[in-house]
TrEMBL record:
Gene3D superfamilies: Guanylate-binding protein, C-terminal domain, P-loop containing nucleotide triphosphate hydrolases. This is GB1/RHD3-type G domain-containing protein. Belongs to the TRAFAC class dynamin-like GTPase superfamily. GB1/RHD3 GTPase family. InterPro entries: G_GB1_RHD3_dom, Guanylate-bd/ATL_C, Guanylate-bd_C_sf, Guanylate-bd_N, P-loop_NTPase. The chain crosses the membrane at residues 557-576. Residues 1-23 form the signal peptide. Keywords: GTP-binding, Hydrolase, Membrane, Nucleotide-binding, Signal, Transmembrane, Transmembrane helix. PROSITE patterns: G_GB1_RHD3 (PS51715). Residues 57-177 form the GB1/RHD3-type G domain. One of its GO terms (molecular function) is GTPase activity. Pfam families: GBP, GBP_C.
Length: 602
């Protein structure tokens, strides 16, 4: 019982999985690729149509037909595809479900365009000016068809109205932003070729080209009406786009328009059949593969492109070319920002603020130049350029903070090093002003050369204050320490002269120095005048000359020299006495009780 239950559950799950992952078997039919949302204001993608397009691996081209509601767009597409109404796009007066959103014929036509095997899709769009829709929704349909297609057929009944020209404002803006904007291989996308298709009952009178030229002619606006000015601007732009548009007239196929789907070609107006063939040839001659950013799009890439465009058009309350420009410039903006960041990342921080500012200006100029060479859009690109500039400023702020941190870290380390060096000089075994000044100068020079960046000025004040205090403290203790050293030195020399080298002149000189320092200076010189006396200056100069020089630093070598001298004296006293007797010693201390060494004579 339990086993049969689990088999039943597994069967149900398998059924749902299989039914949920089923794909389309028959592509010889129309599929929706874009549908309206429930509010009928924005658009959303349809899985069926995207699946029909995604399977294509060759370059894609799209032919879209736009026009007013009930103007015969679906019937025209069926005629271009040589399809009947039963198998092709649904015709309004025959089916309850009219075209909603944008539909695609699932089986593309395979054609050879300049040696490139191209799959041509035909798109049917929802007619505008129908009941229950907003103008914004119509604008989104029109905008999306304009961007997607390589050929845009503007299907108009009888004549060209003022409202029909206004509808082209988005196409005009696209052309102004992107048309002819080619930098090497970077092409955002070529605007669709605009085909004015005017269907009318009679072909007498004005030609369709004359009708288009007349419709695009300036309308007098003596009252300064803003709407008329706006339409006149569109007329000017469309006139400039003359190379990217063409016109064609097509007679009505039959007077009984509600029966068109039931009629064969033999029943249709011969002139219509002839012009229909010419229209097919015209469309085939102007079809080009869809190029986006320098490359042909296959099915999957076309779907990805469509997703980007639809997202951009749905962002704002009103679809705009500015949002599309941002989409195409997004990758370029990121590359230029990366270029700027790489240039700034190569800087060796810390560095002076002016040098950093100069490096920022050079890197910014290089990035902006790269953006100017690669960006898409002529008018709306300024927003992307401003965004790039703002993001570079943010990166520069981070670089400034890093430079300040590195500068503080470096200067603090140098300051601490100098402070430690001054502390070492304060406790010299043999105090010498020359060595202290040399250390102070070396410390100051190394700080001046190595400390860079915004923190230098602050640390310069600190180190100068610290060095000044250290020098004052050293000078204050220097004279007293030197005096004490000289007293100690005189006593040592007394001992050396008396007991070691036994040289009475050395001992006497040492006693004279000791007595002078301890009696005469205290009796006749005050503590203040001692250090300003010429005799003391002479003593200081002699001390500085003996203790420190670029060749010999007694503070460092005093102990080794003293040890060597002691060893030398010890050697002379021990080994020299055995070899030479006592004659090497000075005679003053060579008292012998036995009298003369001469032999006695009788």
């Amino acid at each position: 019982m339990e086993i049969s239950y689990w088999i039943f559950v597994f069967s149900i799950l398998l059924f749902f999985l299989v039914s949920g992952s089923s794909s389309i078997d028959n592509f010889h039919q129309p599929f929706p690729i874009v549908e309206p949302d429930p509010g009928h204001t924005k658009l959303r993608l349809s899985r069926e149509g995207l699946e029909a397009i995604s399977r294509i691996t060759t370059p894609i081209s799209a032919v879209a037909v736009i026009g007013p509601y009930r103007s015969g767009k679906s019937f025209l597409l069926n005629q271009l595809l040589s399809l009947s109404c039963d198998e092709g796009f649904g015709v309004g007066h025959m089916r309850d479900t009219k075209t909603k959103g944008i539909w695609v014929w699932g089986t593309p036509l395979e054609v050879d365009i300049d040696g490139v095997r191209t799959s041509v899709f035909y798109l049917d769009t929802e007619g505008f000016e129908s009941v229950g829709k907003s103008n914004v929704y119509d604008d989104r349909i029109f905008a999306l068809a304009t961007v997607m297609s390589s050929v845009l057929i503007y299907n108009l009944p009888e004549t060209i109205r003022e409202a029909d020209i206004s509808r082209l404002s988005f196409a005009v803006e696209l052309a102004e932003e992107f048309y002819g904007r080619v930098k090497g291989q970077d092409i955002a996308f070529e605007p669709a070729k605009l085909l004015w298709l005017i269907q009318r009952d009679f072909l007498q009178g004005k030609s369709v080209k004359e009708m288009v030229d007349e419709a695009l002619r300036h309308v007098p606006n003596s009252d300064g009406d803003k709407n008329i000015d706006q339409v006149n601007q569109i007329r000017d732009s469309l006139a400039v786009m003359g190379d990217n548009s063409t016109a064609f007239s097509l007679p009505q196929p039959h007077l009984m328009r509600t029966k068109l789907c039931d009629l064969k070609d033999d029943d249709l107006d011969p002139m219509y059949v002839k012009k229909r063939g010419q229209l097919k040839e015209l469309v085939a001659s102007i079809i080009r593969p869809k190029i986006v950013q320098g490359k042909y799009l296959n099915g999957k890439e076309f779907v990805s492109f469509l997703e980007q465009i639809l997202d951009a058009l749905n962002k704002g309350e009103i679809p705009s070319t500015g949002s599309l420009v941002e989409v195409f410039n997004k990758g370029i903006l990121e590359r230029c920002l990366k270029l700027y960041s790489e240039r700034m990342g190569k800087l060796r921080l810390p560095m002076p603020e002016k040098s950093l500012q100069d490096a920022h200006e050079r890197s910014r100029e290089e990035a902006m130049k790269a953006f100017e060479e690669q960006h898409f859009g002529r008018h709306h690109a300024k927003k992307s350029a401003d965004q790039l500039d703002e993001e570079m400023k943010e990166v520069f702020k981070n670089v400034i903070m890093t430079n300040e941190y590195q500068s503080t870290r470096l200067c603090e380390a140098l300051y601490t090093k100098c402070e430690d060096r001054m502390d070492q000089l304060q406790v010299l075994r043999l105090p010498t002003m020359a060595k202290f000044d040399a250390g102070l100068q070396q410390c100051n020079q190394s700080f001046e050369q190595e400390c860079v960046g915004p923190s230098k000025a602050n640390y310069e004040q600190r180190i100068m204050k610290m060095l000044g205090k250290s020098r004052s403290l050293f000078i204050k203790e220097y004279n007293q320490r030197l005096f004490n050293w000289l007293v100690a030195f005189s006593l040592v020399m007394v001992v050396v002269g008396r007991f070691i080298i036994k040289f009475i002149l050395v001992e006497m000189a040492a006693w004279i120095l000791f007595i002078f320092l301890e009696t005469y200076t205290r009796m006749f010189w005050s503590a203040e005048s001692l250090y300003y006396n010429p005799v003391w200056h002479f003593i200081v100069s002699a001390w500085e000359t003996i203790v420190y020089s670029p060749i010999l630093d007694l503070d460092r070598w005093a102990i080794p020299i003293a040890c060597m001298a002691a060893l030398g004296i010890l050697y002379c006293r021990c080994y020299g006495r055995r070899k030479h007797g006592s004659q090497w010693l000075l005679p003053l201390y060579n008292h012998q009780k036995g009298g003369s060494n001469r032999p006695r004579s009788d």
